[in-house]
Design goal:
Elements (H helix, E strand, L loop, with lengths): L18 E5 L2 E7 L9 E7 L8 E3 L3 E8 L1 E6 L2 E6 L3 E4 L5 E6 L4 E8 L5 H6 L16 H10 L2 E3 L15
Length: about 170
C-alpha cells in the first residue's frame, strides 16, 4: 500500500526551473510529471514559434488544457475552432482530434496541463536537449518518430498541422 502524502511530497520550482527540452518548434519546460504528482497531472510551460502547428492528433488517456500566457493561438478541437489570447483558457477532451497554430509574428507562451499525468512523456521522449536559450531551428518533423513516441503514450497522429488563420480568422 502506498503511504499517504506528506509535506516531503511538495514541490516548488522557481521561474525557469524544470526539465527543458526542444520538441518540434517548442522550447518546453516540464514543471510537473505524473511521477511528481502521484499521477494526477503533467504541467508544461512552452514557448512556441510563430506559425507553428503540431500535426492533428488525439490523446486517448488524458484531457489537455491550455492557458495562454503570451501571444495569440487558434485551437481546433473536432469541428470547433477557438481563438485564444493572453489570459485565455481552453479545455480539449480526450479522444477528440485537436491541434493549434500560433498566429502572427511573435511566439506564444502557454501552460499545458495534461490530466491525468503521463502524456507529458511524449514531449520528454520525443524532444531533445536545447542547444541554446532560444527556440529550436525550423526543421521538418520526423513524422514516423513522432507517431512512434505518441503511440507509447496512448496518442496518435491523425492529420496535418493547421495553417494560420491570420487576423481575419474568427472563432467558431
Amino acid at each position: 500500500m502506498t503511504p499517504p502524502p506528506t509535506a516531503d511530497d511538495a514541490c516548488a520550482l522557481a521561474p525557469g526551473e524544470g526539465h527543458t527540452i526542444w520538441f518540434l518548434r517548442n522550447r518546453m519546460t516540464v514543471k510537473a510529471t505524473a511521477a511528481s504528482t502521484g499521477g494526477a497531472f503533467g504541467l508544461v510551460e512552452s514557448l512556441i514559434a510563430p506559425g507553428f502547428s503540431p500535426p492533428l492528433h488525439v490523446h486517448h488517456r488524458e484531457d489537455e488544457s491550455f492557458y495562454v500566457l503570451e501571444g495569440e493561438v487558434t485551437m481546433r478541437c473536432g469541428d470547433r475552432t477557438f481563438r485564444a489570447t493572453a489570459g485565455s483558457f481552453v479545455f480539449l477532451p480526450r479522444d477528440v482530434p485537436h491541434t493549434f497554430v500560433v498566429e502572427g509574428d511573435a511566439p506564444a507562451r502557454m501552460l499545458t496541463l495534461l490530466t491525468p499525468g503521463g502524456g507529458e512523456g511524449v514531449f520528454v521522449d520525443g524532444g531533445r536537449n536545447p542547444e541554446h536559450d532560444g527556440l529550436p531551428p525550423a526543421t521538418p518533423p520526423d513524422i514516423a518518430a513522432l507517431k512512434r513516441v505518441s503511440e507509447q503514450y496512448g496518442a496518435e497522429i491523425v492529420g496535418p498541422p493547421m495553417a494560420p488563420l491570420g487576423s481575419t480568422g474568427a472563432a467558431r
